[in-house]
Design brief:
The complex is a heterodimer of chains A (about 270) and B (about 325). Chain A is built from nine helices and ten strands. Chain A is an alpha/beta fold. The termini of chain A are far apart. With about 325 residues, chain B is α/β, with parallel strands linked by helices. Classes of the chains: A alpha/beta (about 270), B alpha/beta (about 325). At the A-B interface, helix 6, helix 7, helix 8 and helix 9 of A face helix 7, helix 8, helix 9 and helix 10 of B.
Chain lengths: ~270, ~325
Protein backbone atom coordinates (compact mmCIF):
# COMPACT_ATOMS: atom_id res chain seq x y z
CA UNK A 1 0.00 0.00 0.00
CA UNK A 2 1.18 3.50 -0.74
CA UNK A 3 1.92 5.99 2.01
CA UNK A 4 -1.21 7.02 3.85
CA UNK A 5 -2.68 10.42 3.13
CA UNK A 6 -3.73 10.76 6.74
CA UNK A 7 -2.16 8.95 9.65
CA UNK A 8 -3.60 9.38 13.10
CA UNK A 9 -1.48 8.21 16.02
CA UNK A 10 -2.82 8.01 19.57
CA UNK A 11 -5.24 10.92 19.31
CA UNK A 12 -6.70 12.14 22.59
CA UNK A 13 -9.23 14.93 22.82
CA UNK A 14 -10.38 15.59 26.36
CA UNK A 15 -12.86 18.14 27.64
CA UNK A 16 -12.96 19.61 31.07
CA UNK A 17 -16.37 20.09 32.63
CA UNK A 18 -17.35 22.29 35.51
CA UNK A 19 -18.02 20.24 38.58
CA UNK A 20 -21.48 20.19 40.11
CA UNK A 21 -21.96 22.96 42.65
CA UNK A 22 -19.57 25.73 43.57
CA UNK A 23 -16.81 23.51 44.92
CA UNK A 24 -17.59 20.42 42.87
CA UNK A 25 -14.69 18.58 41.37
CA UNK A 26 -13.88 19.27 37.78
CA UNK A 27 -14.28 16.23 35.62
CA UNK A 28 -12.36 15.30 32.51
CA UNK A 29 -14.37 13.75 29.71
CA UNK A 30 -12.16 11.68 27.47
CA UNK A 31 -14.20 12.10 24.28
CA UNK A 32 -11.43 10.67 22.13
CA UNK A 33 -9.17 8.39 24.09
CA UNK A 34 -6.33 7.04 22.00
CA UNK A 35 -7.50 6.74 18.41
CA UNK A 36 -5.15 5.67 15.60
CA UNK A 37 -5.88 4.92 11.96
CA UNK A 38 -4.60 5.49 8.43
CA UNK A 39 -6.47 6.66 5.37
CA UNK A 40 -4.87 5.86 2.04
CA UNK A 41 -5.23 8.15 -0.98
CA UNK A 42 -8.60 7.51 -2.59
CA UNK A 43 -9.87 5.49 0.34
CA UNK A 44 -13.11 5.92 2.27
CA UNK A 45 -12.85 5.11 5.97
CA UNK A 46 -16.01 5.27 8.05
CA UNK A 47 -16.21 5.98 11.76
CA UNK A 48 -19.35 4.41 13.12
CA UNK A 49 -20.74 4.37 16.62
CA UNK A 50 -23.54 5.62 18.83
CA UNK A 51 -24.03 9.12 20.20
CA UNK A 52 -21.27 10.18 22.55
CA UNK A 53 -18.73 7.64 21.28
CA UNK A 54 -16.42 10.45 20.12
CA UNK A 55 -16.70 9.95 16.37
CA UNK A 56 -17.63 13.56 15.64
CA UNK A 57 -14.91 14.82 17.98
CA UNK A 58 -12.32 12.98 15.87
CA UNK A 59 -13.51 14.83 12.77
CA UNK A 60 -13.69 18.15 14.57
CA UNK A 61 -10.20 17.71 16.01
CA UNK A 62 -8.79 16.96 12.55
CA UNK A 63 -10.22 20.24 11.24
CA UNK A 64 -8.96 22.17 14.29
CA UNK A 65 -12.50 22.83 15.47
CA UNK A 66 -11.48 21.18 18.74
CA UNK A 67 -8.04 21.19 20.30
CA UNK A 68 -6.27 17.84 20.58
CA UNK A 69 -5.03 16.97 24.07
CA UNK A 70 -2.28 14.73 22.75
CA UNK A 71 -1.41 12.57 19.79
CA UNK A 72 -0.28 13.17 16.28
CA UNK A 73 -1.99 13.51 12.93
CA UNK A 74 0.11 13.40 9.81
CA UNK A 75 -1.22 14.73 6.53
CA UNK A 76 1.07 13.71 3.69
CA UNK A 77 3.71 13.00 6.29
CA UNK A 78 3.51 16.27 8.25
CA UNK A 79 2.04 16.55 11.74
CA UNK A 80 -0.61 19.26 11.59
CA UNK A 81 -2.28 18.97 14.98
CA UNK A 82 0.14 21.36 16.69
CA UNK A 83 0.03 24.00 13.96
CA UNK A 84 -1.15 27.50 14.83
CA UNK A 85 -4.35 28.68 13.11
CA UNK A 86 -2.40 30.66 10.53
CA UNK A 87 -0.02 27.79 9.85
CA UNK A 88 -2.98 25.45 9.42
CA UNK A 89 -4.87 27.74 7.05
CA UNK A 90 -3.20 26.57 3.79
CA UNK A 91 -4.10 22.98 4.72
CA UNK A 92 -7.78 23.87 5.05
CA UNK A 93 -8.05 23.77 1.31
CA UNK A 94 -6.95 20.13 1.29
CA UNK A 95 -8.97 19.04 4.32
CA UNK A 96 -12.62 19.96 3.90
CA UNK A 97 -15.72 19.17 5.90
CA UNK A 98 -19.34 18.41 5.00
CA UNK A 99 -21.69 19.04 7.90
CA UNK A 100 -24.89 17.33 8.96
CA UNK A 101 -27.42 20.10 9.00
CA UNK A 102 -27.99 21.59 5.57
CA UNK A 103 -30.17 24.27 7.13
CA UNK A 104 -27.60 25.55 9.62
CA UNK A 105 -24.43 25.27 7.58
CA UNK A 106 -25.27 27.71 4.79
CA UNK A 107 -25.29 31.45 5.43
CA UNK A 108 -28.91 32.47 4.79
CA UNK A 109 -27.94 35.98 3.70
CA UNK A 110 -25.53 34.94 0.97
CA UNK A 111 -26.51 33.95 -2.52
CA UNK A 112 -25.32 30.52 -3.55
CA UNK A 113 -22.65 32.07 -5.78
CA UNK A 114 -21.34 34.10 -2.83
CA UNK A 115 -21.22 30.99 -0.64
CA UNK A 116 -19.34 29.08 -3.32
CA UNK A 117 -17.05 31.94 -4.34
CA UNK A 118 -15.86 32.60 -0.80
CA UNK A 119 -13.54 29.57 -0.57
CA UNK A 120 -12.18 30.26 -4.05
CA UNK A 121 -11.21 33.82 -3.16
CA UNK A 122 -9.94 32.93 0.32
CA UNK A 123 -7.59 30.33 -1.05
CA UNK A 124 -6.57 32.53 -3.95
CA UNK A 125 -7.84 30.12 -6.60
CA UNK A 126 -9.68 32.85 -8.45
CA UNK A 127 -8.98 36.51 -8.90
CA UNK A 128 -12.14 37.72 -10.59
CA UNK A 129 -15.84 37.00 -10.34
CA UNK A 130 -15.88 35.89 -13.97
CA UNK A 131 -13.33 33.18 -13.22
CA UNK A 132 -15.20 32.20 -10.11
CA UNK A 133 -18.56 31.93 -11.87
CA UNK A 134 -17.14 29.50 -14.41
CA UNK A 135 -15.97 27.20 -11.65
CA UNK A 136 -19.17 27.64 -9.66
CA UNK A 137 -21.28 26.70 -12.67
CA UNK A 138 -19.17 23.62 -13.34
CA UNK A 139 -19.31 22.52 -9.69
CA UNK A 140 -23.07 23.04 -9.45
CA UNK A 141 -23.51 20.79 -12.46
CA UNK A 142 -21.24 18.25 -10.86
CA UNK A 143 -23.55 18.02 -7.82
CA UNK A 144 -26.66 17.83 -9.99
CA UNK A 145 -27.91 21.39 -9.71
CA UNK A 146 -28.77 23.83 -12.49
CA UNK A 147 -26.02 26.49 -12.65
CA UNK A 148 -28.80 29.11 -12.81
CA UNK A 149 -29.50 28.54 -9.11
CA UNK A 150 -26.34 30.45 -8.17
CA UNK A 151 -28.30 33.67 -7.99
CA UNK A 152 -30.64 32.29 -5.33
CA UNK A 153 -30.59 32.20 -1.54
CA UNK A 154 -30.49 29.04 0.63
CA UNK A 155 -34.12 29.34 1.80
CA UNK A 156 -35.30 28.64 -1.73
CA UNK A 157 -33.88 25.12 -1.61
CA UNK A 158 -35.04 21.85 -0.10
CA UNK A 159 -32.92 19.93 2.39
CA UNK A 160 -31.48 17.63 -0.26
CA UNK A 161 -30.58 20.53 -2.54
CA UNK A 162 -28.94 22.40 0.34
CA UNK A 163 -26.82 19.38 1.10
CA UNK A 164 -25.78 19.34 -2.57
CA UNK A 165 -24.72 22.97 -2.18
CA UNK A 166 -22.73 22.04 0.94
CA UNK A 167 -21.02 19.33 -1.10
CA UNK A 168 -20.36 21.78 -3.93
CA UNK A 169 -18.70 24.18 -1.48
CA UNK A 170 -16.34 21.39 -0.49
CA UNK A 171 -15.66 19.95 -3.94
CA UNK A 172 -15.03 23.32 -5.59
CA UNK A 173 -11.65 23.42 -3.76
CA UNK A 174 -10.64 20.00 -5.07
CA UNK A 175 -9.60 18.85 -1.57
CA UNK A 176 -7.53 15.75 -0.87
CA UNK A 177 -9.45 14.71 2.22
CA UNK A 178 -13.13 15.22 2.89
CA UNK A 179 -14.53 14.73 6.38
CA UNK A 180 -18.27 14.10 6.19
CA UNK A 181 -19.98 14.25 9.57
CA UNK A 182 -23.44 12.65 9.37
CA UNK A 183 -23.72 14.16 5.90
CA UNK A 184 -26.96 12.39 4.97
CA UNK A 185 -28.55 11.82 8.37
CA UNK A 186 -30.96 14.74 8.21
CA UNK A 187 -32.41 13.71 4.84
CA UNK A 188 -35.48 11.66 4.03
CA UNK A 189 -34.63 8.19 2.69
CA UNK A 190 -35.53 8.85 -0.94
CA UNK A 191 -33.40 12.01 -0.93
CA UNK A 192 -30.70 10.38 1.19
CA UNK A 193 -30.26 7.74 -1.51
CA UNK A 194 -29.74 10.42 -4.18
CA UNK A 195 -27.17 12.29 -2.09
CA UNK A 196 -25.35 9.09 -1.08
CA UNK A 197 -25.06 8.06 -4.72
CA UNK A 198 -23.76 11.53 -5.51
CA UNK A 199 -21.11 11.44 -2.77
CA UNK A 200 -20.02 7.97 -3.87
CA UNK A 201 -19.79 9.04 -7.51
CA UNK A 202 -17.87 12.24 -6.75
CA UNK A 203 -15.50 10.30 -4.52
CA UNK A 204 -14.84 7.69 -7.22
CA UNK A 205 -14.42 10.26 -10.00
CA UNK A 206 -12.16 12.63 -8.08
CA UNK A 207 -10.24 10.02 -6.08
CA UNK A 208 -10.57 12.12 -2.93
CA UNK A 209 -10.00 10.37 0.40
CA UNK A 210 -12.83 10.45 2.84
CA UNK A 211 -13.48 10.12 6.54
CA UNK A 212 -17.18 9.34 6.69
CA UNK A 213 -18.67 9.74 10.14
CA UNK A 214 -22.09 8.18 10.67
CA UNK A 215 -24.29 6.34 13.14
CA UNK A 216 -26.11 4.52 10.33
CA UNK A 217 -24.58 1.14 9.57
CA UNK A 218 -26.45 0.70 6.30
CA UNK A 219 -25.14 4.01 5.00
CA UNK A 220 -21.64 3.09 6.19
CA UNK A 221 -21.70 -0.23 4.39
CA UNK A 222 -22.79 1.49 1.22
CA UNK A 223 -20.10 4.17 1.13
CA UNK A 224 -16.96 2.75 2.76
CA UNK A 225 -13.88 0.77 1.86
CA UNK A 226 -12.91 0.31 5.51
CA UNK A 227 -14.83 0.75 8.73
CA UNK A 228 -13.77 1.68 12.27
CA UNK A 229 -16.26 1.01 15.06
CA UNK A 230 -15.97 3.44 17.97
CA UNK A 231 -17.15 2.98 21.54
CA UNK A 232 -16.45 5.28 24.47
CA UNK A 233 -13.69 7.22 22.75
CA UNK A 234 -11.83 4.26 21.35
CA UNK A 235 -11.83 2.18 18.20
CA UNK A 236 -12.94 -1.29 19.22
CA UNK A 237 -12.66 -2.79 15.77
CA UNK A 238 -11.30 -1.65 12.42
CA UNK A 239 -11.15 -3.54 9.18
CA UNK A 240 -12.32 -3.94 5.62
CA UNK A 241 -16.01 -3.33 5.14
CA UNK A 242 -16.77 -6.91 4.26
CA UNK A 243 -14.97 -8.23 7.32
CA UNK A 244 -16.73 -5.83 9.70
CA UNK A 245 -20.17 -6.60 8.30
CA UNK A 246 -19.77 -10.29 7.48
CA UNK A 247 -17.47 -11.45 10.28
CA UNK A 248 -17.49 -8.91 13.12
CA UNK A 249 -15.00 -9.84 15.81
CA UNK A 250 -15.84 -7.48 18.63
CA UNK A 251 -18.87 -8.05 20.81
CA UNK A 252 -19.94 -4.40 20.50
CA UNK A 253 -19.88 -4.55 16.69
CA UNK A 254 -22.06 -7.64 16.85
CA UNK A 255 -24.44 -5.90 19.25
CA UNK A 256 -24.74 -2.89 16.93
CA UNK A 257 -25.38 -5.07 13.90
CA UNK A 258 -27.90 -7.13 15.85
CA UNK A 259 -29.86 -4.05 16.91
CA UNK A 260 -30.77 -2.90 13.42
CA UNK A 261 -34.38 -3.56 12.46
CA UNK A 262 -34.45 -5.71 9.34
CA UNK A 263 -37.00 -6.06 6.59
CA UNK A 264 -37.60 -9.57 5.38
CA UNK A 265 -38.89 -9.58 1.85
CA UNK A 266 -40.98 -12.19 0.18
CA UNK A 267 -43.19 -14.62 1.99
CA UNK A 268 -41.53 -16.61 4.68
CA UNK A 269 -42.02 -20.33 4.53
CA UNK A 270 -43.84 -21.25 7.69
CA UNK B 1 -66.07 -3.12 15.30
CA UNK B 2 -62.49 -2.00 15.56
CA UNK B 3 -61.26 0.04 18.52
CA UNK B 4 -60.16 2.95 16.33
CA UNK B 5 -61.72 3.70 12.98
CA UNK B 6 -60.50 6.60 10.91
CA UNK B 7 -62.60 7.17 7.86
CA UNK B 8 -61.94 9.45 4.92
CA UNK B 9 -60.03 11.94 7.08
CA UNK B 10 -59.20 15.26 5.48
CA UNK B 11 -56.94 17.86 7.11
CA UNK B 12 -56.08 21.23 5.62
CA UNK B 13 -53.64 23.95 6.53
CA UNK B 14 -54.91 27.49 6.16
CA UNK B 15 -52.47 30.06 4.89
CA UNK B 16 -53.93 33.36 3.88
CA UNK B 17 -57.46 32.87 2.62
CA UNK B 18 -56.94 29.48 1.02
CA UNK B 19 -56.80 26.01 2.47
CA UNK B 20 -54.08 23.63 1.40
CA UNK B 21 -54.99 19.97 1.81
CA UNK B 22 -52.35 18.02 3.75
CA UNK B 23 -54.26 14.85 4.52
CA UNK B 24 -56.63 13.76 1.79
CA UNK B 25 -59.02 10.95 2.54
CA UNK B 26 -57.12 8.70 4.91
CA UNK B 27 -58.91 5.62 6.26
CA UNK B 28 -57.70 2.84 8.53
CA UNK B 29 -58.69 0.89 11.60
CA UNK B 30 -56.85 -0.60 14.55
CA UNK B 31 -58.02 -3.39 16.82
CA UNK B 32 -57.15 -4.19 20.38
CA UNK B 33 -53.74 -5.81 20.76
CA UNK B 34 -52.84 -4.76 17.23
CA UNK B 35 -50.05 -2.47 15.99
CA UNK B 36 -50.58 -0.33 12.93
CA UNK B 37 -47.51 1.30 11.42
CA UNK B 38 -47.83 4.49 9.41
CA UNK B 39 -44.71 5.11 7.34
CA UNK B 40 -43.77 7.96 5.06
CA UNK B 41 -41.35 10.81 4.51
CA UNK B 42 -41.45 14.34 5.96
CA UNK B 43 -44.63 16.16 5.08
CA UNK B 44 -46.64 13.10 4.04
CA UNK B 45 -49.23 13.82 6.74
CA UNK B 46 -48.47 10.94 9.10
CA UNK B 47 -47.91 13.09 12.16
CA UNK B 48 -50.90 15.33 11.47
CA UNK B 49 -53.06 12.23 11.22
CA UNK B 50 -51.88 11.09 14.66
CA UNK B 51 -52.37 14.54 16.16
CA UNK B 52 -55.90 14.61 14.73
CA UNK B 53 -56.73 11.34 16.49
CA UNK B 54 -55.40 12.72 19.78
CA UNK B 55 -57.26 15.99 19.26
CA UNK B 56 -54.06 17.98 19.41
CA UNK B 57 -54.35 19.92 16.17
CA UNK B 58 -55.69 22.77 18.28
CA UNK B 59 -54.18 25.52 16.20
CA UNK B 60 -56.74 27.24 14.06
CA UNK B 61 -54.48 27.13 11.02
CA UNK B 62 -54.68 23.33 10.87
CA UNK B 63 -58.21 22.04 10.50
CA UNK B 64 -60.00 18.78 10.03
CA UNK B 65 -62.09 19.41 6.94
CA UNK B 66 -63.82 16.06 6.58
CA UNK B 67 -64.17 12.48 7.65
CA UNK B 68 -64.68 10.82 10.99
CA UNK B 69 -62.62 9.33 13.80
CA UNK B 70 -64.41 6.74 15.91
CA UNK B 71 -62.85 5.43 19.07
CA UNK B 72 -64.50 2.70 21.10
CA UNK B 73 -67.88 3.52 19.58
CA UNK B 74 -67.63 7.31 20.09
CA UNK B 75 -67.36 9.81 17.29
CA UNK B 76 -64.40 11.84 18.56
CA UNK B 77 -64.96 14.79 16.27
CA UNK B 78 -68.39 15.53 17.72
CA UNK B 79 -67.36 15.41 21.39
CA UNK B 80 -67.14 18.57 23.47
CA UNK B 81 -63.73 19.72 24.68
CA UNK B 82 -64.23 18.45 28.28
CA UNK B 83 -65.47 15.09 26.96
CA UNK B 84 -62.43 14.88 24.74
CA UNK B 85 -60.07 15.78 27.61
CA UNK B 86 -61.51 12.97 29.70
CA UNK B 87 -60.36 10.51 27.04
CA UNK B 88 -57.01 12.07 26.16
CA UNK B 89 -54.17 10.75 28.29
CA UNK B 90 -56.63 8.36 29.89
CA UNK B 91 -58.07 5.94 27.38
CA UNK B 92 -55.81 7.03 24.57
CA UNK B 93 -52.29 8.30 25.13
CA UNK B 94 -49.42 9.51 23.04
CA UNK B 95 -45.63 9.25 23.04
CA UNK B 96 -43.69 11.89 21.16
CA UNK B 97 -40.40 11.87 19.32
CA UNK B 98 -38.29 14.05 21.55
CA UNK B 99 -38.04 12.76 25.08
CA UNK B 100 -35.85 15.78 25.86
CA UNK B 101 -38.47 18.38 25.12
CA UNK B 102 -41.66 16.61 26.07
CA UNK B 103 -40.78 16.28 29.75
CA UNK B 104 -40.88 19.36 31.97
CA UNK B 105 -37.27 20.01 33.02
CA UNK B 106 -38.12 21.61 36.39
CA UNK B 107 -40.33 18.87 37.83
CA UNK B 108 -39.28 15.49 39.15
CA UNK B 109 -40.36 12.68 36.84
CA UNK B 110 -42.44 11.02 39.57
CA UNK B 111 -44.48 14.20 39.97
CA UNK B 112 -45.01 14.39 36.22
CA UNK B 113 -46.27 10.83 36.05
CA UNK B 114 -48.45 11.35 39.13
CA UNK B 115 -49.93 14.49 37.59
CA UNK B 116 -51.32 12.60 34.64
CA UNK B 117 -52.78 9.93 36.91
CA UNK B 118 -54.43 12.43 39.25
CA UNK B 119 -55.86 14.27 36.27
CA UNK B 120 -58.04 11.26 35.54
CA UNK B 121 -58.35 9.35 38.80
CA UNK B 122 -59.43 10.39 42.27
CA UNK B 123 -56.49 9.09 44.24
CA UNK B 124 -54.21 10.54 46.90
CA UNK B 125 -50.78 11.99 46.21
CA UNK B 126 -49.04 9.11 47.90
CA UNK B 127 -51.09 6.52 46.03
CA UNK B 128 -50.26 8.28 42.75
CA UNK B 129 -46.60 8.27 43.69
CA UNK B 130 -46.73 4.55 44.45
CA UNK B 131 -48.32 4.03 41.08
CA UNK B 132 -45.51 6.06 39.48
CA UNK B 133 -42.91 3.77 41.06
CA UNK B 134 -44.90 0.79 39.83
CA UNK B 135 -44.93 2.21 36.29
CA UNK B 136 -41.20 2.94 36.35
CA UNK B 137 -40.67 -0.69 37.36
CA UNK B 138 -42.88 -1.74 34.46
CA UNK B 139 -40.77 0.19 31.94
CA UNK B 140 -37.63 -1.28 33.52
CA UNK B 141 -36.02 1.82 35.01
CA UNK B 142 -33.41 0.56 37.49
CA UNK B 143 -33.96 1.59 41.16
CA UNK B 144 -37.43 2.96 40.46
CA UNK B 145 -38.11 4.03 44.05
CA UNK B 146 -35.09 6.35 43.90
CA UNK B 147 -35.36 7.41 40.25
CA UNK B 148 -38.93 8.58 40.83
CA UNK B 149 -37.34 11.70 42.37
CA UNK B 150 -34.95 12.31 39.47
CA UNK B 151 -35.18 15.28 37.17
CA UNK B 152 -35.29 14.65 33.40
CA UNK B 153 -31.74 15.95 32.89
CA UNK B 154 -30.42 13.23 35.19
CA UNK B 155 -31.62 10.53 32.83
CA UNK B 156 -30.36 9.30 29.47
CA UNK B 157 -32.39 9.65 26.27
CA UNK B 158 -33.55 6.04 26.42
CA UNK B 159 -34.58 6.38 30.05
CA UNK B 160 -36.50 9.56 29.31
CA UNK B 161 -38.38 7.81 26.54
CA UNK B 162 -39.20 5.03 29.03
CA UNK B 163 -40.56 7.68 31.39
CA UNK B 164 -42.72 9.00 28.55
CA UNK B 165 -44.01 5.48 27.97
CA UNK B 166 -44.68 5.08 31.70
CA UNK B 167 -46.63 8.33 31.65
CA UNK B 168 -48.61 7.28 28.59
CA UNK B 169 -49.47 3.93 30.19
CA UNK B 170 -50.35 5.45 33.58
CA UNK B 171 -54.12 5.17 33.08
CA UNK B 172 -54.08 1.85 31.19
CA UNK B 173 -54.98 3.34 27.81
CA UNK B 174 -56.69 1.20 25.23
CA UNK B 175 -54.87 3.02 22.46
CA UNK B 176 -51.30 4.24 22.37
CA UNK B 177 -50.10 6.56 19.62
CA UNK B 178 -46.33 6.65 19.23
CA UNK B 179 -45.01 9.33 16.89
CA UNK B 180 -41.39 8.47 15.95
CA UNK B 181 -40.79 7.11 19.48
CA UNK B 182 -37.28 5.87 18.77
CA UNK B 183 -36.03 8.24 16.08
CA UNK B 184 -33.89 10.25 18.50
CA UNK B 185 -32.39 7.14 20.08
CA UNK B 186 -29.33 5.06 19.30
CA UNK B 187 -29.98 1.71 17.60
CA UNK B 188 -29.16 -0.41 20.65
CA UNK B 189 -31.50 1.72 22.80
CA UNK B 190 -34.11 1.75 20.04
CA UNK B 191 -34.16 -2.03 20.12
CA UNK B 192 -34.75 -2.06 23.88
CA UNK B 193 -37.55 0.51 23.70
CA UNK B 194 -39.31 -1.29 20.83
CA UNK B 195 -39.07 -4.60 22.67
CA UNK B 196 -40.47 -2.94 25.78
CA UNK B 197 -43.44 -1.60 23.84
CA UNK B 198 -44.15 -5.01 22.30
CA UNK B 199 -43.87 -6.69 25.68
CA UNK B 200 -46.25 -4.20 27.32
CA UNK B 201 -48.70 -4.67 24.47
CA UNK B 202 -48.67 -8.42 25.04
CA UNK B 203 -49.47 -7.91 28.70
CA UNK B 204 -52.03 -5.15 28.42
CA UNK B 205 -53.60 -5.69 25.01
CA UNK B 206 -53.09 -2.07 24.02
CA UNK B 207 -53.71 -1.05 20.44
CA UNK B 208 -50.74 0.87 19.05
CA UNK B 209 -50.41 3.29 16.16
CA UNK B 210 -46.71 3.62 15.41
CA UNK B 211 -45.67 6.51 13.21
CA UNK B 212 -42.21 6.23 11.68
CA UNK B 213 -40.10 7.17 8.70
CA UNK B 214 -38.11 3.97 9.19
CA UNK B 215 -39.42 1.05 7.16
CA UNK B 216 -37.20 -1.31 9.15
CA UNK B 217 -38.76 -0.32 12.48
CA UNK B 218 -42.22 -0.72 10.97
CA UNK B 219 -41.39 -4.12 9.46
CA UNK B 220 -40.16 -5.46 12.77
CA UNK B 221 -42.85 -4.15 15.08
CA UNK B 222 -46.15 -3.76 13.25
CA UNK B 223 -48.96 -6.16 12.41
CA UNK B 224 -50.08 -3.99 9.54
CA UNK B 225 -48.72 -1.06 7.63
CA UNK B 226 -50.04 2.01 5.85
CA UNK B 227 -47.59 3.76 3.52
CA UNK B 228 -48.39 7.45 3.14
CA UNK B 229 -47.35 9.74 0.33
CA UNK B 230 -48.39 13.38 0.14
CA UNK B 231 -51.47 13.09 2.30
CA UNK B 232 -52.81 9.81 1.00
CA UNK B 233 -52.37 6.16 1.83
CA UNK B 234 -50.51 4.79 -1.17
CA UNK B 235 -50.58 1.21 0.03
CA UNK B 236 -51.86 -0.66 3.07
CA UNK B 237 -51.68 -4.31 4.08
CA UNK B 238 -50.71 -6.75 6.79
CA UNK B 239 -46.94 -6.40 7.25
CA UNK B 240 -46.13 -9.87 5.93
CA UNK B 241 -48.39 -9.38 2.90
CA UNK B 242 -46.96 -5.97 2.13
CA UNK B 243 -43.34 -7.12 2.07
CA UNK B 244 -44.29 -10.33 0.29
CA UNK B 245 -45.38 -8.30 -2.70
CA UNK B 246 -45.00 -4.53 -2.79
CA UNK B 247 -47.81 -3.18 -4.92
CA UNK B 248 -47.11 0.55 -5.10
CA UNK B 249 -44.09 1.93 -7.00
CA UNK B 250 -43.49 4.42 -4.16
CA UNK B 251 -43.20 1.64 -1.57
CA UNK B 252 -40.77 -0.19 -3.84
CA UNK B 253 -38.80 3.04 -4.37
CA UNK B 254 -38.69 3.67 -0.63
CA UNK B 255 -37.39 0.20 0.02
CA UNK B 256 -34.77 0.39 -2.72
CA UNK B 257 -33.56 3.72 -1.33
CA UNK B 258 -32.53 2.18 1.97
CA UNK B 259 -28.88 1.16 2.17
CA UNK B 260 -29.00 -2.24 3.87
CA UNK B 261 -26.45 -3.72 6.24
CA UNK B 262 -26.72 -7.29 5.07
CA UNK B 263 -25.42 -7.01 1.53
CA UNK B 264 -23.42 -4.75 -0.75
CA UNK B 265 -25.26 -2.64 -3.27
CA UNK B 266 -23.18 -0.69 -5.76
CA UNK B 267 -25.67 2.12 -6.44
CA UNK B 268 -28.90 2.78 -4.60
CA UNK B 269 -32.03 2.94 -6.73
CA UNK B 270 -33.04 6.37 -5.52
CA UNK B 271 -36.47 7.79 -6.33
CA UNK B 272 -35.78 10.70 -8.69
CA UNK B 273 -36.95 14.22 -7.84
CA UNK B 274 -38.53 15.24 -4.59
CA UNK B 275 -41.92 15.39 -2.91
CA UNK B 276 -43.85 18.31 -4.41
CA UNK B 277 -44.54 21.07 -1.89
CA UNK B 278 -48.07 21.82 -0.75
CA UNK B 279 -48.21 24.95 -2.87
CA UNK B 280 -47.46 23.03 -6.04
CA UNK B 281 -50.76 21.84 -7.43
CA UNK B 282 -50.78 18.43 -9.00
CA UNK B 283 -53.32 16.70 -11.13
CA UNK B 284 -53.65 12.96 -11.25
CA UNK B 285 -51.60 10.67 -9.06
CA UNK B 286 -49.42 12.56 -6.56
CA UNK B 287 -46.49 10.25 -7.26
CA UNK B 288 -46.57 10.44 -11.07
CA UNK B 289 -43.77 13.03 -11.50
CA UNK B 290 -41.33 10.63 -9.78
CA UNK B 291 -42.75 7.34 -11.00
CA UNK B 292 -41.06 5.17 -13.63
CA UNK B 293 -44.37 3.59 -14.60
CA UNK B 294 -46.25 6.86 -15.03
CA UNK B 295 -48.19 7.51 -18.21
CA UNK B 296 -50.34 10.42 -19.39
CA UNK B 297 -53.25 8.68 -17.75
CA UNK B 298 -51.53 8.90 -14.34
CA UNK B 299 -50.99 12.62 -14.83
CA UNK B 300 -54.64 13.25 -15.56
CA UNK B 301 -56.48 10.89 -13.24
CA UNK B 302 -55.84 10.20 -9.57
CA UNK B 303 -56.12 6.49 -8.78
CA UNK B 304 -58.85 5.30 -6.43
CA UNK B 305 -58.09 2.85 -3.67
CA UNK B 306 -58.33 -0.63 -5.11
CA UNK B 307 -57.89 -4.12 -3.70
CA UNK B 308 -54.62 -5.54 -4.91
CA UNK B 309 -55.02 -8.74 -2.89
CA UNK B 310 -57.45 -9.55 -0.09
CA UNK B 311 -56.58 -7.11 2.74
CA UNK B 312 -53.99 -5.39 0.58
CA UNK B 313 -55.14 -2.09 -0.84
CA UNK B 314 -53.29 0.26 -3.15
CA UNK B 315 -53.77 3.58 -4.91
CA UNK B 316 -52.10 3.03 -8.26
CA UNK B 317 -53.31 2.47 -11.82
CA UNK B 318 -50.53 -0.05 -12.34
CA UNK B 319 -50.50 -1.82 -8.97
CA UNK B 320 -47.93 -4.57 -8.80
CA UNK B 321 -45.89 -3.09 -11.60
CA UNK B 322 -47.91 -4.56 -14.45
CA UNK B 323 -49.29 -2.25 -17.10
CA UNK B 324 -52.48 -4.15 -17.70
Amino acid sequence: MSDPLLRLVGLHTHFQTKGSGLFGKKKVIKAVNGVSFDIAPGEVLSLVGESGCGKSTVGRTLTHLEKATSGQAFFEGNDFLALTPSEFRPLRRDIQMIFQDPFASLNPRLKIEQTLAEPLFIHGLCKTWDEARVQIAATLELVGLDPKVMARHPHEFSGGQRQRIGIARVMILKPKLVIADEAVSALDVSIQAQVLNLIKKLQRDSGVSMLFISHDLGVVRHISDRVAVMFEGQIVEIGDKTQIFEAPQHEYTRKLLGSIPRISLGREVA
Amino acid sequence: MALLEVENLHIAVGSGGKLLPVVQGVSFCVDENETLGIVGESGCGKSLTSLAIMGLLGDSTVRITGGSIRFDGMDLLTLSAPERRAIMGNRMAMIFQEPMTSLNPVYRIGDQIAESIRQHQQISRSAARDRAVELLTLVRIPNPSERVDSFPHQMSGGQRQRVMIAMALSCDPKLLIADEPTTALDVTVQKEVLELMADLQDRMGTAIVLISHDLGVIAETCDKVAVMYRGKIAEAAATADLFAELAHPYTRGLLNSIPVVDRDVEWLEAIPGRVPTLEETLTGCAFHPRCALATDFCASRAPETSQFKPNHSVQCHFAGGSTT
